[in-house]
Amino acid sequence: xxxxxxxxxxxQDGQSAWPGAPLNLPLSSVNTTILVLSSVTCQMGVFKAEAxxxxxxxxxxxxRRWGLREWYVLSFLMGAWFVAGQxxxxxxxxxxxxxxxxxxxxxxxxxLATGFHGLHVCGGLVAFLFILGxxxxxxxxxxxxxxxxxxxxxxxxxxxxxxxxLFSAVxxxx
Length: 174
What we know:
Strand content: under 5%
CATH superfamily: Cytochrome c oxidase, subunit III, four-helix bundle
Distance between the termini: 16 Å
Radius of gyration: 20 Å
CATH topology: Four Helix Bundle (Hemerythrin (Met), subunit A)
């Protein structure tokens, strides 16, 4: 969608009328790094889920003794930070630069692509909360609950991979 609309958007002078926007590359780069690292913390939680270790058995700062809960809480916080960072960028684009969904084809595509991705990240955050809730509700940790944690991690990793492609297309390509 991004490349198609860009290729057919022609101005009155016959040149490309693709307006672009002053995107915040440093903020988005930090956000991308945080989101990618959240896949690492999510996978650490999966390793703990597979081992049957739900909670930590050491001090809070001793991350080597963390269980699934601590790793998934950290993944949740990192994902929430990403969503907040995207919201901050949206706010600046709308208020300072006037880029809205209806202001241009670029605005429509930018908000559609990044917005749908953001909704999927929010879905992953809800899934983390469900898994965390199950760790407290279950009387004992079973293979089925570990499988649920693994499925959530697959979703989370996929959302991260999609973002890397979106970030590359929207923020890095001219």
